[in-house]
Design goal:
The chain contains 10 helices and 8 strands. By secondary structure, it is of the alpha/beta class. Helix 1 crosses helix 4, helix 3 packs across helix 4 and helix 5 packs parallel to helix 10. The termini are close together. Bound molecules: 2-phosphoglycolic acid. Belongs to the HAD-like hydrolase superfamily. CbbY/CbbZ/Gph/YieH family.
Length: 219
């Protein structure tokens, strides 16, 4: 029986890629560096914003000072422009609502910085009763470290066996494995089915409706 579903945010609940790309390109251009195509950002996102900046910077410019400058310009732009193009994936609001109606506990575990994670969840899913909305926080290791999952299990009072973790990247599948939790990889996000399987996805789904069916067989 599954009683808790933990969701990744970027590429799983929300398609955030355009806003992330626009704000990172803004920061790159403020720093005098070349921009990237939106499609490239699908491979830059997933390990938190410091890693996003490192990957976006030219190879010989990847240093602490440039990452700090990128962070400043990015946050200035993204803080006010993070809901311009971002949308929930088709079927996600219905999936969350149906799970909540069936008394399944819901939580978010993201590598996006905490304030951004909370703002987007509140803006797009304000009516969904998430028991925990956790992003990247100072001093807490990012996914694939399992600490974020362990924190959510503690808040929920639910065991590993009763938990499902859902995400769109190899990092997400590794996180679930490291936490000893069953994983479902989703193919509507930023990464390929191959990446999900290579990183130990227990199951892979192509539509939110499939996840709902999978869950209803396990309630
Ligand atoms: O900000 C990121 O790197 C991605 O965050 P995610 O963990 O929600 O995919």
């Amino acid at each position: 029986m599954k009683k808790l579903v933990i969701f990744d945010l970027d590429g799983t609940l929300l398609n955030t890629i355009d806003d992330l790309a626009v704000s990172t390109n803004f920061a790159l251009s403020c720093c005098g560096f070349p921009e990237h195509k939106v499609s490239q950002y699908k491979y830059f996102v997933g390990n938190g914003i410091a890693k996003l900046f490192e990957r976006a910077l030219p190879e010989n410019e990847r240093n602490e000072q440039n990452i700090a400058r990128m962070r400043m310009y990015f946050l200035e732009h993204y803080t006010v422009n993070n809901t311009c193009h971002t949308v929930p994936y088709d079927g996600i609001p219905d999936l969350l609502r149906s799970l909540a109606d069936q008394d399944v506990k819901l939580a978010v575990a993201s590598n996006k910085y905490q304030q951004g994670t909370e703002k987007l969840i509140d803006y797009y899913f304000g009516d969904i009763p998430f028991i925990a909305v956790l992003g990247q926080r100072e001093g807490v290791p990012v996914k694939p470290d399992p600490v974020i999952i362990e924190e959510i299990l503690g808040v929920a009072g639910i065991s590993r066996d009763e938990t499902l973790y859902t995400g769109d990247s190899g990092v997400d599948m590794q996180t679930a494995k490291n936490a000893g939790v069953e994983s479902v990889g989703v193919t509507w996000g930023f990464r390929s089915k191959g990446e999900l399987l290579e990183n130990g996805a227990c199951h892979v789904v192509d539509y939110p409706g499939e996840l709902l069916k999978y869950m209803s067989e396990r309630l």
